[in-house]
């Protein structure tokens, strides 16, 4: 952790926005007394943490549409492809090791920036509205839980098979001490404790009365608007349901998800089909009204060009095979996800992935919006954990109806039913590998054809980076 501690202390210095409020003297230390001088400077510091989360090494690329989705077996990757070693789980390969070194370093650097923010805001002596202070602290503590859960899901053991195995450190300090590796179940306990604290601090989050609220140019301060771009009250509770389900606490996950469902339906409306179907130049492919939490990814379209642009060669592009898509989407081309995310093209590919392609309207409020928690995940959690099949079928059909699909009459095997919708729903969002790992899947749909392929359980066990293990 010592290397990461150092990165954490200097990471904010790399933000463009930080230049306005950091006097970088000395180079390896933030001058906290100057940063936290008033509420506005605290807002800028918190914004910097969100900006860091959205960088390509974290949720702007590797943790969503690239590394994690390659592990999730979404893309048709051949033997000469840039990502072949990653796609085939060759964790000892130097390029793959560097991939996870980058993720680990960026994640813990941001956790340490969060911890520094929390400590300094708690110690701040300037006058500040208590509700505003509590909300910002709640957001930060919620972010700490969010990133730790994802590091656990990447680097930890399979939760159903080895919950007592050492996994990752849980870091609540910005100090330079080395933190011990905790068993998975202890990490979950820490995550849920942070979520409980964050929930209490976010009790007066304006999202609970006003919803997301778009920015208003007539206001001098929009900081507490656009709440879906921040770790808001509902995002923290959705994260709780995610963590509970991942750790096998199904009844708790059901109660948590059910407890926020009516508010989610009120404030995070299902996407209106016309915003996808009737707006071909500016389709809302992100289904943005349904996103409970996301970050502003200012490199989204640059990453699209580097990873998904049909002008790329077959050894560089991330693209699904047409036969695999027909299998996953059950040959249902009327599914909103199918026809808005997957477009035919002239050239080497039958279909290309365009979910993160730019639109013509440069003022569209969903541009650059990277989804991290969706309402649909709550519906799928409820489908899996509901106490009876009738209730589960209602949640599943609600999702299907809002994707242009007809009701199912019976649900059949619940996990199979959730599998089908989960694979469709989270293309480009980094969730499928975690889903497969949680359920210890030993076979998955083959991304190169219409068959299935075996997955060894050891493929879910991503080793800790050498920078971490070598320093212990």
SSE topology string: HHHHHHHEEHHHHHEHHHEEEHHHHEEH
Percent helix, as a range, is 40-55%
Low-confidence stretches: 1-33
Q: Looking at the structure, what is the overall shape?
A: globular
* Tally of separate domains: 1
Could you say what the CATH architecture is?
Alpha Horseshoe
Structural class: mainly alpha
Tell me the major beta sheet.
2 strands, antiparallel
User: What is the residue-mean pLDDT, rounded to a whole number?
Assistant: 91
From the N-terminal CA to the C-terminal CA, the straight-line distance is: 9 Å
The CATH C-level class name: Mainly Alpha
Strand order of the largest sheet: 1-2
Computed CA radius of gyration, to the nearest angstrom: 22 Å
- Total E-strand runs: 8
In DSSP terms, counting alpha (H) and pi (I) runs of 4 or more, how many helices?
20
| CATH fold group | Serine Threonine Protein Phosphatase 5, Tetratricopeptide repeat
Q: Beta fraction of the residues?
A: 5-15%
Label this structure with key terms.
single chain; 472 residues; mainly alpha; Serine Threonine Protein Phosphatase 5, Tetratricopeptide repeat; two-stranded antiparallel sheet; 20 helices; 8 strands; globular; disordered N terminus
List the helices and strands and how they pair.
Layout: H1 2-11, H2 32-35, H3 39-53, H4 67-71, H5 84-87, H6 94-123, H7 130-155, E1 166-168, E2 182-183, H8 184-201, H9 207-210, H10 233-246, H11 250-267, H12 274-277, E3 291-296, H13 300-307, H14 322-328, H15 336-341, E4 342-343, E5 352-353, E6 369-374, H16 375-385, H17 389-401, H18 414-425, H19 432-438, E7 443-445, E8 452-454, H20 466-469
Antiparallel strand pairs: 1-2, 3-6, 4-5, 7-8
